[in-house]
Structure formats: structure tokens, C-alpha cells
Amino acid sequence: QVQLVESGGGLVQAGGSLRLSCAASGTIFSINSMGWYRQAPGKQRELVATITSSGSTNYADFVKGRFTISRDNAKKTVYLQMNSLNPEDTAVYYCNADGIASRIYYGRIWGQGTQVTVSS
Questions:
Q1: pLDDT at position 98, please?
Q2: What is the DSSP secondary-structure string of 53-70?
Q3: Taking a C-beta distance cutoff of 8 angstroms, is the pair 97, 6 a contact?
Q4: Could you tell me how far CA 99 lies from the centroid of its own chain?
Q5: Cβ partners under 8 Å of residue 102, min gap 6
Q6: What is the dihedral sign for C-alpha 80, 83, 89, 91?
Q7: What is the pLDDT of residue 24?
Q8: What is the model's pLDDT at position 30?
Q9: Do the beta carbons of residue 35 and residue 22 sit within 8 Å?
Q10: CB 21 within 8 A of CB 116
């Protein structure tokens, strides 16, 4: 069974930084796209950033210039470096992976989420 496990969330002061990691486990031959989404209390889940297997990235406007997504295909891990955090970035951050070739094909899977809290 393929799973995504996130780590790196926590509490940080405004202006600070955090680095999130998400590792895929299980028998995996390839993963097409990986990404990060977030959901704040009372709000819908929203895209933060995605990265393809070839390294093409896409960012939400509200994180451009502050967050950087990267990926280690050999480790089947995606990272999100978050700088200049502000209280509006407080949310549960979810990792996802699309197009996973394993013993079966997975269209999309999600991690369990990791809490990021930014204090003012």
C-alpha cells in the first residue's frame, strides 16, 4: 500500500521559517506530480505548490517569492521551504501525489496533514 507521511510542521513566529517534508512509502515505480495544499479553519483546501517529476513547478500567488517546493525523486520525497511566514499561513498542510505507478495505479493520494501555526 502506498502512503504519504508528512513532517516538519509546528509553531513559529511571524517572519520565521519552516521546512515541510513528505515521503512516499510502499512499492512505487514512479510518481507524476507531487504537491502541497493547505486548509485553514473554516476555509476550503487550497493549492500551495506543485512539482512534476521533471521539476516543473507551480505556485499559488500568495506564496510566490516566499515558499519553495522541491523534490527528490530517488527518495520519493517532496519538500516545502516556507520563509517569511505570517499568521495568514496558519493551516493544516497536506501533501499529495498524483499518478502513482505501483503494483496498482493510484490516481491521487493524500497525506494525513501537518499543522503549521504562525504567531503574530
A1: 95
A2: TT--EEE-GGGTTTEEEE
A3: no
A4: 16
A5: 2, 26, 27, 28, 29
A6: positive
A7: 96
A8: 92
A9: no
A10: no
What is the per-residue pLDDT for 59?
97
Q: Measure the CA–CA gap between 110 and 11, rounded to whole angstroms.
A: 22
Q: What is the mean pLDDT of each run of 10 residues along the chain (120 residues)?
A: 94 98 94 97 96 96 95 96 97 96 92 97
pLDDT at 64: 86
Q: How many CA atoms lie within 13 A of 47 on its CB side?
A: 12
Task: Give the number of C-alpha atoms closer than 13 A to the C-alpha of residue 120, restricted to the C-beta side.
Answer: 2
Residue with cell 498542510: 93
Beta strands in the chain (DSSP E): 3-7, 10-13, 18-25, 30-39, 46-52, 57-59, 67-72, 77-82, 91-101, 105-110, 114-119
